[in-house]
């Protein structure tokens, strides 16, 4: 019964991912999915449960990358050199990474994932 509960939670996580709009929300869902993948493996719930959790984690990482790509990387107020970067503060990108405790390399990987075109889950019949 515990395996079924894990799958139900993953279904809910997938729904929440579709509705999420912030990096913080998406990162939480990715972390939950990754934990579920590790749990599914340790509890011997089968490859399908592990793959489902990994798929959700991957989709979340991809969505996080899409958001990160859109964030301003120049320090706020520091465009054009009118305000020194030290005074202007951190960029929206740097702030998002700091607020979500996301390492720079992880953010780079997520953005690389966002660059890969999605493959339709049900390709058209030929």
Question: Quick gist of this model?
Answer:
The protein has 126 residues and is mainly α.
Characterize the structure shown.
This protein is mainly alpha-helical and 126 residues long. The protein has one domain (2-115). The protein is elongated. It is built from 6 helices and no strands.
Q: List the domain count as a whole number.
A: 1
Quaternary state reads single chain
Q: Beta fraction of the residues?
A: under 5%
Share of helical residues: 55-70%
Q: Please identify the structural class as seen in this structure.
A: mainly alpha
- Overall mean pLDDT score? 85
| Extended strand count | 0
Give the topology string: H per helix, E per strand: HHHHHH
H/I helix tally: 6
Which sheet architecture does the biggest sheet show?
A: none
Distance between the termini: 40 Å
Question: How large is the radius of gyration?
Answer: 18 Å
**What best-fitting shape do the alpha-carbon axes yield?**
elongated
List low-confidence stretches. Answer: none
Keywords:
68% helix, mainly alpha, 126 residues
Q: How are the secondary structure elements laid out?
A:
Elements: H1 2-19, H2 23-42, H3 47-70, H4 85-88, H5 92-99, H6 104-115
Helix pairs in contact: 1-2, 1-3, 2-3, 3-6
């Amino acid at each position: 019964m515990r395996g079924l509960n894990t799958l139900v939670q993953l279904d809910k996580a997938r729904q929440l991912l579709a509705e999420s709009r912030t990096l913080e929300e998406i990162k939480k869902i990715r972390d939950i999915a990754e934990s579920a993948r590790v749990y599914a493996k340790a509890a011997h719930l089968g490859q399908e449960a592990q793959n489902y959790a990994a798929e959700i984690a991957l989709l979340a990482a991809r969505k996080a990358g899409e958001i990160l790509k859109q964030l301003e990387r120049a320090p706020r107020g520091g465009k054009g050199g009118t305000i020194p970067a030290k005074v202007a503060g951190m960029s929206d990108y740097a702030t998002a990474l700091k607020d979500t405790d996301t390492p720079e390399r992880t953010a780079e990987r997520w953005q690389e994932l966002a660059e890969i075109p999605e493959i339709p889950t049900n390709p058209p019949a030929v």
